[in-house]
Amino acid sequence: GWLAEIELLADDLPAAAAHLKTACDALEEIGAVGALATEAARLGRILCRLGKFDEAEALAEKACPAERTVL
To answer: Are 28 and 62 in contact (CB under 8 A)?
Structure first.
């Protein structure tokens, strides 16, 4: 979280993405679904800014999983 914010302030998008990827991996490992959704969405936005749309799309599923669909 905070390390990514510092990198964003320094306009270092690749470093911010790396910090958020590490955070997402750790959150997924411990099953912190709510926090993972937040951080995955943040990482996805940065990946879009970097032009990595395929990676961002994969993260969208973590940020908003299909099982949360509304009937």
So the answer is: yes
Amino acid at 11: D
Eight-class DSSP state of 51:
T
Cα distances from 20 to residues 2, 34, 51, 56, 60, in angstroms, run 9, 15, 16, 12, 14
Q: How far is CA 7 from the centre of its chain?
A: 14
And the tokens for 5?
Answer: 């914010």
Hey, what are 66's tokens?
A: 């299909």
Nearest CA to 26 out of 51, 10, 8, 43 is that of 43
- 21-48 pLDDT, tens digit each: 999 999 999 999 889 888 999 999 999 9
Whole-prediction pTM: 0.83
